[in-house]
Amino acid sequence: MAEKTPIFVIGATGYIGGSVLSRFLSHPSANTFDFTALVRSEEKAKKLEQFGVHSVIGSYKDTTLVEKLAENAHLVLSLADADDLPAIQAILKGLRQRHAKLGDLPILIHTSGTGILTEGQETKGMAATDVIYDDSDFEQIANIKPTALHRDVDNAIFEADKQGYARTYIILPSTIYGIEKNLLVDAGIQNPFSVQIPMLIKASLARGRAGMVGKGLPFWPDVHIDDVADLYIILYDAIITKGPENVDHGVRGYYFGENGEHTWYDISKGIGEAMVALDLTNDPEPTTFTDEELEKHFGSVDDGNYSGTNSRARATHSRSLGWKPKYTTQDMIASIKPEVEANLKQKQTQQ
Ligand SMILES: NC(=O)c1ccc[n+]([C@@H]2O[C@H](COP(=O)([O-])OP(=O)(O)OC[C@H]3O[C@@H](n4cnc5c(N)ncnc54)[C@H](OP(=O)(O)O)[C@@H]3O)[C@@H](O)[C@H]2O)c1
Q1: Which of 238, 248, 307, 349 has the most crowded CB, counting CB atoms within 10 A?
Q2: What is the DSSP code string of 138-196?
């Protein structure tokens, strides 16, 4: 029997990570994959074994462990954190060692995000930009500042590809939405919820009325979790069928995840309408969060103002791989009410 492909997964229990792993588990070549996941929870690690995923219990803060696990893998799926530089450096060190020892050219698929396009903005919800980034415009992408969100990690990854000891690809999802349903969610392994919209919902429910940053005028792209998971598989399949050299990689290896865009106001209005439908308020019209509210619900005023930035992206490069996202911005708006209901249910079970 041919040797199996060792795959190291970081973030298997997460919203993106679990969704991607579940797709890999049902991939036509699944019986040729040998998964190892780094997991913090002992209970989830045990459950993952039932799906044929070996689990190592630990944190990606343990860089020695991460380095070793990366060295053992031909493919690393980095699905946990777009911002942890020491963790990515440990992965890259492991891949460099693998290359030096075995002559293998390992593959890294990492998760960043279109938050990278919010660099230097002080919009606070008050202005839409007409600057749109296209992932197939390599010059525009190369000019993103090193100080941009996630970019320090992405730059370290570009450098590894340039040095030639790994082939690297970066997926940048935007506002991911949809409550994920799959076998890992059913088994209680995976977080089925996203971040941005649920955070606005939580804050809105707490104040009894939909809230927004400023007037909610800036734009962000959106993408359904199923389409995001598809993108990882389509990228992986392209790398395998065409060969790693023949799929844009390194500095040319940015792949956005978007299938439409919305304003922040659109989301908040959707939350307001869901709250009216659920008898939680009389007025669907969102009002502006005060600084005190931003601090209370988002951790700090700066973190809160992130929901008032522009991030405008076109995923031409991702589509050129054959990616055909199915869900649209209308689906995103329709996903808000079930998300509000899920949030209420969670609150009830926590009481
Ligand atoms: N969701 C979005 O809309 C979106 C869009 C673009 C980019 N992103 C980025 O993608 C990344 C993943 O997002 P997500 O929505 O999937 O988040 P998530 O559901 O919170 O998943 C995070 C994953 O990372 C794991 N993790 C966290 N700290 C760890 C540690 N110290 N050691 C080992 N594992 C650790 C978590 O494990 P536990 O189960 O143990 O917590 C979980 O598996 C984030 O960097 C996020 O900024 C997200």
Answers
A1: 307
A2: HHHHHTS-TTSTTHHHHHHHHHHHHHTS-EEEEEEE-EEES---SHHHHTT-S----SH
Dist. CA 81 → ligand 1 center (Å): 5
**Helix%, strand%, coil% for the chain, nearest 5:** 50, 15, 35
Distance between CA atoms of residues 276 and 209, nearest Å: 9
- 221-250 pLDDT, tens per residue? 999 999 999 999 999 999 999 999 999 999
85-102 burial, b at 16+ Cβ within 10 Å, e below that, comes to eebbbbbbbbbbbbbeee
Cβ–ligand 1 distance for 14 under 6 Å, the answer: yes
Question: Any long-range contacts for 243-249 (C-beta under 8 Å, 24+ apart)?
Answer: 244/105, 244/107, 244/167, 245/167, 247/169, 247/321, 248/317, 249/161, 249/167, 249/168, 249/169
**Alpha-carbon distance 164 to 4, whole Å?**
24
**Which atom of ligand 1 lies closest to the CA of 38?**
33
Regarding the beta carbon of 195 and ligand 1, being less than 6 Å apart is answered yes
Distance from the alpha carbon of residue 276 to the mean position of ligand 1, in angstroms: 32
Does the Cβ of 257 fall within 6 Å of ligand 1?
A: no
pTM: 0.98
Select from 39, 59, 62, 81 the residue to mutate for testing ligand 1; criterion: most ligand atoms less than 8 Å from CB. Answer: 81
From the CA of 112, give the closest atom in ligand 1: 7
Cα–Cα distance, 137 to 124 (Å, whole number): 28
Question: Is ligand 1 within 6 A of the CB of residue 194?
Answer: yes
**From atom 3 of ligand 1, which residue's Cα is the shortest distance away?**
176
Positions of the chain with pLDDT lower than 70, given as ranges: 1-2
Q: Summarize pLDDT for 36-83 with one digit per residue, the tens.
A: 999 999 999 999 999 999 999 999 999 999 999 999 999 999 999 999
Task: Give the CA count within 13 Å in the CB-facing half-sphere of 122.
Answer: 0
Whether ligand 1 lies within 6 angstroms of the CB of 311 is answered as no
Mean pLDDT of the chain: 97
